[in-house]
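If your schedule permits, I should be very grateful for your opinion on a structural question. The matter concerns a single protein, recorded as an amino acid sequence and a row of backbone structure tokens. Could you please explain, in whatever detail you think fit, how the structure tokens follow from the sequence? I set the record out below, with my sincere thanks for your time.

——
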Amino acid sequence: MKERDKVCLLMWDEMLLQPHVDYDAKKKHILGFEDFGNKRRARFADHVLVFMIRGVQSGWKFPLVYYFCDGATKTDQLIEWVKDIAKIIIDSGLYLVAFVCNDGKRNLTAINKLKLESARLKLKQRQLYYGYITIKKQDIIPLYDPPCLIKSIRNNLLNNDLEFDVEEGEERKFASWEIIEQAHHMDLTHSTYRLMPKITAEHVIKNKIKKKKVKNAAQVLSMTMGGFIHHHTKLEEKKGRDTAEIILFFDRLFDSVNGHTLKPEKPLRVAISHNSPHFPFWERAVKRLQRMRFVDRKDKNQIRDSNVLKNWISTIGGLRKLWIILKAYEFKCLKPRILNLDSLQHFFGQIRSFGIRNTNPTCAEFESSFKTLLINNLTSPRTVENNSENKIDGSLLFTLKEFLNRKIESRYNDDLMLDLERPLDATHDYLNICNFIAAKILNNSRIKGCDTCKNLLADITKSELVSSNDLIETFRSAEDLLTSKMSGVCYVHHAALMLETELYIQMDLRWLNCPQHDVQLKKFLVSHVVTFYICKWCNSINDILTEKEHDDLK
């Protein structure tokens, strides 16, 4: 790998999951709880946080790690993970130069705390601080995802006016969503031919807007909309002119952070180079953003709870600093579209569309899809519902195919899911279950054909396979013991091994005294009983989770 190809960024984002528990027979634990790798907690996971690295030069990518969480990740935990993962990347020999995340409150707080730590470190070392995050002597630039920033501008504008070019003694200038609504209505009703055919109700009408779609936000804050408003004489002149001016400004600003080719699609929608127009534009843009503020639509007082303008300023400043760093690695150009969350959002889209369309997969489904996508090199070039405008996506840094020497087996022992829909409260249920377990054990290649084992597990007076009284009573006792222990171990790593150990310690298994298969017989019985119990327990918990979800939707 060339030195320039080692220059990379670290990005992270969260994805919603369906609360659901599943038994992983390979790892002998239950998926669906909070899982931080080195520790698990007794909370049902409904989010997954994924970290991905991406090459700044060629755009290669690799999903590094994921964590299952109950709710959005807590700030202190996020900071710990960011620092730990950054250290691993740096120690691997890669050159980590940037962090990329969305502008959510927890990310803002985490970035600010990391910057404060770095500022104190520089002060202690008697060095100047330039806004970097320093980890293992590596200066890393924090950037906020531009597609998220353009969505935030649109979302703030829905309910507030944007005042700009604020100067003492000057006439106030406001951009208003009301003008955008009027423009859309005029285009629908007053034109022989629509001038904005791509603009629909999902772009403009507040209760129909798809707020998570970047494409909709970018299209409504575009040259097409700005030009229509600017040239339409029937719109209120000053208010329309002001709104058009701010729309055209954000169209150019988004273009400047969205280029991916050396040949300009639009003046600023191009890769950054030494003499590109980005730098003089950004200098003017920062000054203009500093003189903007969102205000209440009625009283025109400033809205204090919006940080999106500051985040734009921070990201533009970060891009300017990043270019200085990249020149030291002999970069001739930089494709700014690489510096966003599109690759990770694309990955999420592939997870959701894997196999069947699944908007919120379970932890088990996510983990299975994650591994399969790594093995298959994330081969799908684009995802139908990808939340981005990205037309390019880098290749996977490497795949896991080289590590596979055998067929991938299912993680679940589906055979043991027999009759799990009925409660274990009747004698015939215990008998049926024990008959099934006895058949599984006696058909095992290590035991098959042993008359002693058959006499221990089955009633030899019956013509067909019927469990012995010892087996049925052992199963009853095991169920009581497992029920008393389950709540304390259900969420931990290797929970099944812990439950098996409890059965070995506390159950009287001396009746399983086959001279030839004593160890195997006990091992198989304990394993099957524990697996059956855990699967039954998971089904019961999932019924509760499903019922709760239905109640929440009412």
